[in-house]
Amino acid sequence: MLGLPGSISVLGGVPITAQTLGVMLAGAVLGARLGALALAVLLALVAVGLPLLSGGTGGLGVFLGPSAGYLAGWVLGAAAVGCIVHLGGRRPTAVRTAVAMLVGGIAVVYAVGIPVQSLVTRLPLAQTAYTSLVFLPGDLLKAAIATAIVMTLVRGYPRAFRRASGWTTAPRDVAGSTAP
């Protein structure tokens, strides 16, 4: 999802990619720790030049441009999605998953991305935030799609979500050893 080459132009030619959908799914399916780690590894591969971002871009230059903050926001966003979806180690619910997509997949990514974009473009923060609103309808649609995908996966593969919760990959007993 993150490296799909194409985009769909809507709302006056603004390209909408599947990248934030991938961020949302990484956190929800892999959990907070592994979702964030997966995005960090992806960004490390991009930094060394692999063309893994939408449109086949890669290299250190992408971390110096207006989208640099959004890329950093992906890691934090995936972690936030994973934390909310798997809150308290419980099975994901549709409401909690939808909230996770909105908070982690959109709000966190925007909260990191917009200030960096404002800094790089030397535009006022309010103006940058206002112009970023054009992406919100597409991101809301992706949040709905991600929620539907996750809930379908939870119903079809409920055991897969047992170990995705929180920042641990396996429960520990009182003595600290990993449980079977």
From TrEMBL:
Mainly localized where?
Answer: membrane
Stretches that traverse the bilayer: 6-30, 37-56, 68-87, 99-120, 140-157
Instruction: Tell whether Transport is among the UniProt keywords.
Output: yes
Keywords from UniProt, A to Z, are: Cell membrane, Membrane, Transmembrane, Transmembrane helix, Transport
GO terms (molecular function) for this protein are:
biotin transmembrane transporter activity
Which GO cellular component does the record give, naming just one? plasma membrane
Please give the InterPro entries that the UniProt record associates with this protein.
BioY (IPR003784)
Does the record's keyword annotation contain Iron? Answer: no
Topology in the lipid bilayer is annotated as:
Multi-pass membrane protein
Tell where it localizes.
Cell membrane
Q: Which PANTHER family match?
A: BIOTIN TRANSPORTER BIOY, BIOTIN TRANSPORTER BIOY-RELATED
Family per record:
Belongs to the BioY family.
What protein is this chain from?
Answer: Biotin transporter
Species of provenance: Clavibacter michiganensis subsp. michiganensis
